[in-house]
Amino acid sequence: MSLPLLEQLIDAFRILPGVGQKTAQRMAYHVLEREREGAQKLAEVLAKAIERIGHCTQCRDFSETEVCAVCANSSRERAQLCVVESPADRLAIESATGFRGVYYVLQGRLSPLDGIGPRELGLDALGTRLQQGEVQELIIATSATVEGEATAHYLAQLARANNVRPSRLAQGLPLGGELEYVDRGTLSHAFGTRTEAT
Amino acid sequence: MSLPLLEQLIDAFRILPGVGQKTAQRMAYHVLEREREGAQKLAEVLAKAIERIGHCTQCRDFSETEVCAVCANSSRERAQLCVVESPADRLAIESATGFRGVYYVLQGRLSPLDGIGPRELGLDALGTRLQQGEVQELIIATSATVEGEATAHYLAQLARANNVRPSRLAQGLPLGGELEYVDRGTLSHAFGTRTEAT
Ligand SMILES: [Zn+2]
Ligand SMILES: [Zn+2]
Question: What is the mean pLDDT of residues A161-175?
Fold first, then answer.
């Protein structure tokens, strides 16, 4: 015998970030009481998204197509490649700055203890791309965390080894802060005054 | 042209209680990055729950069947009827106390300004049930909010009009507090020392 559907639903909500038993319960009751139509829509879109959203083969960002809209846009400047940790970080830079280059989304940061090395972040593919000579500046926009800094250091070395100039967002990011939570103004300023990476 | 699936997904998550744009975005990224299987399960269970979970015809609690498990349980004492505002409140009482009677779930509380009157809370049906003579005590477990108190007052009058003894959970509930957030001990004590309703 399987669990009652209501309990299954509460369990299922717990996969969402920051959602414990109590919040999952509230979500289940809320949709059943007041959001049946919206919940039906959520179920449909969620199933479709899981099925159809993969990764762009060029920048590793989420994409429904083999190459995402930014990478496929011929008016973007391919000489500037901005490396970010996550799709949310890419979105933050895209909406806060006037950047017209292209991105590379690591989908994580170096964390040897968790088994996340250069290969898991696609840095071998990035190295190959830098070798091809199209990229002139590698803008390193990893977060100001310990792992983000280690990742930035690795990226700067990778760039130099391929005769690409590495740069780093300017001081001004709050220390230890996640990039995606930085306010637009600070982020835009830090992006504009980026310095050579060390 | 429809919105990209990722944006549709972020929008869809916003139906959940307390979820704004930023949280919805994190949820979408999180499931795509790390919880594809769990998200698929959530989509399935959610669709099924919306389709199959209705209300018990006896107590108005959520139920997959016409009569819920508590109401269908012949060992529960039908002379004690406990009125709660929500399924979560019913669950809190059920797990914190040794109550062996049955419940009536209002799915709200009296709020004339929002158009929620006795009819919307099923109080006409409750009156009919009290008239039938099986219920001897109406345990009023609405919340200690202004609207909860007004609802309690209405319920006490309804009980007396039908020669049913109304009782109210004892003082001890934090004032203005939502019943479902009360700790087990306080709730159990208040339930055990309930007083006659005024
Ligand atoms: Zn791309
Ligand atoms: Zn029932």
Answer: 81
